[in-house]
Design goal:
With 199 residues, the protein is α+β, with helices and mostly antiparallel strands. It has 6 helices and 5 strands, in the order αββαααβββαα. The chain has a 5-stranded antiparallel sheet. Helix 5 runs antiparallel to helix 6. The longest helix is centred in the C-terminal third of the chain and has 62 residues. It is rod-shaped and about 130 Å long. The termini are far apart.
Length: 199
């Protein structure tokens, strides 16, 4: 039993995640990682505090219902994510699971809490990068379309100007040719047709 307890204590003491035990919803034990997470200097600083002191006001009813179900049904709760309020008033984003436990012969809850602040921040940053890339692609597409439209209008303008000038020359030359004396009638008809088409 002593060896088993020593192994268990080592696992708990050196766990990188917060492990906290609450009896009657008051903290009786928090491992070193947990004390560091909630910015507490020692166990005595938080021992006896109500677990709701560490939950946002808007989630407190939900937290109590969840913990009541854990004790009544003797089953672990699903993992939930929420902002944990630290001793200094700051918050950290955590994932938490409540596990039914027996502490000193009393029903208790073993809280397994993992800090996910950095992961959540990384997800937010990835989302922001993706959003920036999407905006950049959309802006590039708009610029490309605008550039293509400007080029199309430039080419259309050049075609219109040069083609219009050439057609005017063809029309005028055909008109002048019809006014030359001794032009055979079939040739005059062709010249008039050319002048009409050019017009």
């Amino acid at each position: 039993l002593q060896q088993s307890e020593a192994r268990f204590r080592a696992l708990v003491e050196y766990s990188p995640d917060c492990i906290a035990v609450a009896v009657d919803e008051r903290l009786v034990y928090v491992n070193p990682a947990g004390l560091k997470l909630i910015r507490a200097g020692s166990l005595s600083e938080v021992q006896g505090r109500h677990i709701l002191d560490f939950a946002p006001p808007e989630l407190r009813d939900l937290v109590l219902q969840r913990r009541k179900a854990v004790l009544e049904h003797a089953v672990s709760s699903p993992v939930v994510e929420f902002p944990l309020i630290c001793v200094d008033g700051s918050t950290v984003q955590v994932e938490s699971q409540a596990v039914p436990f027996n502490y000193g012969g009393k029903p208790a809850i073993l809280n397994l809490i993992r800090d996910v602040t950095e992961r959540r921040q990384a997800e937010i940053e990835r989302g922001e990068v993706a959003a920036r890339e999407k905006r950049a692609r959309e802006e590039f597409t708009h610029l490309l379309i605008a550039s293509q439209e400007a080029e199309r209008q430039r080419i259309a303008g050049e075609l219109h100007d040069s083609l219009g000038q050439n057609l005017s020359i063809i029309k005028n030359r055909a008109l002048l040719a019809t006014r030359i004396s001794n032009v055979p009638a079939p040739t005059a008809e062709h010249l008039q047709a050319i002048e009409r088409v050019a017009s």
